[in-house]
Amino acid sequence: MNGHCGSRSPGRPADDNTRSAVADLAGEPVAGVPTCLSVNSHGPALVRDFLQHYLGCIQIKDRDGFLDRKRNKAFWDEQAEIELSKLMADNGITSKDEVSPEMRQKAEEQVESSIKSLAVSIEAQYKRTQVLRKALSRGSADNLVACVDKSRGKWKASPEYTAGLEKVRRWKGCASVAPAGHHESDLEYGRRHVQDIVKGFRGDNAIEEKIADYDLERDVNAYLIQYTRKPDAVDQANHLEAQHLPLRPIDEELDDDRFKGKFPDQRVSVSLLLETARSRDPHNERNILSKAVCDKKDPTRLRYIHIPSNNMEWIETAIAGYYNDGIPPLSPNHIQSPVKTKTRMLLRPEFWRGQQHGLRSGIVHARYMRPLCERVSTEVHTMEDSPSNIVMFMPYMHWETDRMRNTVSKMIEEESEKHRKTQLKLASDAKKGRIRERKDLGGNGKQLKHLEENPDDPSNMAIIRNAMSKSSRPMPIRTLSGSVRYVVRRKKNGICVAENGRLEVEPPLGQYLIDAARLYEGMSTFRDQQMLERYLYNDPPLHPRRTLDQSHYWTLKTTKARDRDQVVYRGTNINLEFAHRLEEVPLAPPQGSTTMKVVQDAMKELLEGVRSPVAGDATPDPLATHPNKQCQIHKEEKGSSTWGLNRKQKCKKCLLSWQWRGHSPDTDENGCDHCTSEIKKVSKLIMVDQLWMWILDEQTIITSFPRRYGYNKYDLHGIHRSIRNRLRNARKNQIRSVYDLALIILDECSNTFFDRTKTHDSQPQVTDIFSEAIGNVTNKHTISFQHVWHWTQKASGIYRSKSKHMETSDLHVPLLDIHPEGKLQREVKDILDELDIMLSITRRQRELIRRFCKHVENILDPKGRWRNGSDGAPRARQDDGDESDSQDDETAPQAEVDQNGSGAESQETTESPEKSGKTKRDQKKKAKKRDQKKRAKKRDQTRKKKQLDWFHMQSQDLLCEVSDRIDELEGLRDGARSTAQSVNDLLQLKQQQASVVQAWESVNQAAEAVRQGRAIMIFTIVTIVFLPLSFMSSVFGMNNSNFGSNQWSVEQQLQLMFPVSAGIIVISVVFAFYDFLRAIIWSAYTYIVTWIAVRTGIYSVWLEHSENWKSLSLKQKAEKEVLKLKDEVRKARRKRKAQQMAKKRAEEEEGEDPSAATAPVAAKEKRWWWPWPWSTKDVDEETGKRSPPQGQALRVSTGDGARTRDHSQGQNGMAAGPTGGMGRGTGSAR
């Protein structure tokens, strides 16, 4: 626990505290201002939540006197001053000298009420903790409570606990740490005083001694915020009527044990809220929701009821309780038209269940209510001209931690798998029941066959289910225990992970803290788990929260990879690229040594055994810098002949040490700010929630939207908490109608990521994260562009170089590698995708708010007399409409008066004076009632006109704010698009440069080829010249009688050789450079060869067999033969498996129905069913019937059901296989 929160100093005025608190709530940084859950002392002005302050700030020993007005006088006196300052501000008083005693008394009463409310909340929290511990201590394979108790006992039995206890006693200067007279078996310290306070104003029965079982509806609290115009004593003394009074907050009495807290934090459990609604008793005065009961108490009361879950069943029950007419059948499967009630009219399919999306897909995150804002009439028999009820479904964005989202996601997957198995079992049981009901049915002696009865059928359901179970098997999810087991090696350094995921460490205190953290997480998520188990697949179902990608890509079965790729997730997660890691590094040189290189060289010589250290050597003694000064290896071998030999295998700690990268000695001693900030990071994601809102009869608002997972009431970033804070700080007469309250709700739901005053560290600043992500991509793009520019300059130098020996091989890899740019392009595409989704949601919000404002204006001004024109200017003669309406209202009564008056005058002569006087008195009374009615109607019209003007101003401000949010998102998207275009341009430039380099290399290669071609041409010419001469010389050089007689002279040989060689050279050159001659010779050759092939019939033979002689045809034939052989093997394998399944099913049926063997079977109805073809040897020669093979299970189909008999012969004999072969058998199915 942190230190005690002290009261303010005597010299510090209360206004300073108030100013700091207001600045803190508004998000303005105040230097040195402490808050709750901090180590610094702070007074009531800085307390955000008194319950959180009681449980998390003050020490346990100070809890007993915290709620005592006398013992904690300074704290509560300061709170009384704060309440008095609020009353002064509300009444326009600036000086304390003007404060009346009644006002001070009212401030004291508010402090006493706050103490009572806090006592109720503290006791409720204690009860909830006990109930959750009881629920978690049973019915769970991983008993978290038992682990905590066990580790706590070990810690208290350890010597560290005893020694630490003595140190704390000496530090506090007391003999005992625990408060005097307190024992562990007693209640929590201070709770007895809390219970006494609660009993003081609620009675002794308000405290339940017995720990109740967990009840989900009792654990979930609904909030009740109320305003009233009912005159109080002061207003009645001043003769002020209700319609002239502004709305002011009101609370239910604290004596009522159903309610906890004060305005605007007054709450009631969902169980109590819906209990009376389910009873359907219209005269039940304890029905909190009932409109009739509320109107009976206070007809001017305005109520706002919030249910913190998108639970359709709770909503239907709450609306039915509001109208006191029971829950009608709302399912679309009801064919008959149900009785029309107000609940039925409000929750018609077109405004409720018919708007639900995703029921047919079966995917949980596909559930949502389609965006809607409509006016609904609840009149049963008549049609309203201007319905006063509004229903609205609007999506909005919030956030959640990745750990909580992942935990709940696994719960949803488990519940989905359970539901799938349950539905399959129900379908299977129903099918078996239908089969049993129809077992006596048969047609023409043929029994109905089912897929399960023919295992050889390729559509066998057993085979299909087996294949589906393999293909639809869920991917393994790494849980906390799996992650820890992956990171931490089992039983290394005293750490291991149990099978249930429990991290086990050696220090008792560390184990106790780990188990306590696991218990806290289990208690935090227990309510969400129970909610999913009970309502996820209920009819109607629960709508869980969805991530940003789940809301947009709802057709995907899973979005885990996309969720972990969100921009906000990357922006709030630890950046591993810049994280400080623990590494093995060489030991630092000792004091007075030389440079590190000298030390490393000396250590290397020691490891290699080059030399031994001598006296006066500069090499340090490894034992002097050894982490363990008592290294036994060095002590035993120091001074021996083996000193320094094989030291690498014997003691590595002499040369290496574990150090954090990027740390200095001062950082290791005082702490690293970078590591501290990185450790505190919590990965977060954007979620898309739903706002369901109903405005009923212009007096009541019912909303439903979820809270963050794992939070009860301490969520500082919850939407409803923000609404309550705005209502708490609202100015006088700011809420004038139920529609103004609805605008606040819509504003808070739509500005979660755009309100700059919410600067809490745990809430992600989404727009800043996106701006930072776009800036990072832009910066990386700039660096990549500089690299490309560098390579371009290098290529330009190569292009302009006059040297013929320039190499461009080092430019190939950087220019052809587009992975860095592709990574940037992927990142910026993700940013654009998410911004488009956020823009789509925000634009939809603006459209729904516009429709809402239009409907409200139509309700407040049905005839359009007070609304502005199309140009925004007020319509002319606004009061003429009122006068005309009032004149129209007076027309009929005035006509009646004139008629009565004329009749009275005509009868004056005949009627007596008494009757005449009575008639005049009646006429005066009627005229007075008409005047009162006229004045009341005029006041009501004036009030509605003022409400409309105020609402119009507030709604226009809200629409402008929503438009500004859209403009901000569009600005981010434009920046992301510009960056994406720059990345594309860079990628194209890089590819173009690579193409230029390749083209330049191609040109160089072409030029080189031309040069080589010219050299080859020279070689060819020389070859053409000398090749014939070489041939002729070879011919003449042959040893034969004609050339070998040596009778020819050289001249004769040259005369023969040169002409022949010249002829060959001329013919070759002509053929090489004369295309026309080559064409003539080729044409002649082609014609001659074709003529010979046609005439001889060779071409006909080729046409007949050309298709079969092609290489492609030969390959295809070979592939068909191979596939045929493989199919035969697969069929044989499937047949063997089918036989085994048939045997196994036959044995199971014999075990399930033992009476089947003794049931009478008619001979004419017996038929043998077998899953494979019969062979001729299985036919009985005498009867002509087929008999099954020996050693196999047979199925006998009779009129009274299917039975299976085992006609196997022998226990260890040879059983015939399905194809007639002999296989090894044991008399039973393999």
From TrEMBL:
Q: Where is the composition biased (Polar residues)?
A: 897-910
Q: Which SUPFAM superfamilies match?
A: Magnesium transport protein CorA, transmembrane region
Going by the UniProt record, its keywords in alphabetical order are:
Membrane, Transmembrane, Transmembrane helix
Q: Which Pfam families match?
A: CorA (PF01544)
Q: Indicate the secretion signal residues.
A: none
Look up and give the membrane topology term: Multi-pass membrane protein
Segments of skewed composition (Basic and acidic residues)? 431-441
UniProt xrefs under InterPro entries: CorA_MIT, CorA_TM1_TM2, MgTranspt_CorA/ZnTranspt_ZntB
Q: What is this protein called?
A: Ankyrin repeat protein
Q: Does the keyword Transferase apply?
A: no
The listed locations are: Membrane
Q: What is the lineage of its organism?
A: Eukaryota, Fungi, Dikarya, Ascomycota, Pezizomycotina
Q: Does the UniProt entry include the keyword Kinase?
A: no
Q: Which residues cross the membrane?
A: 1015-1036, 1056-1074, 1080-1102
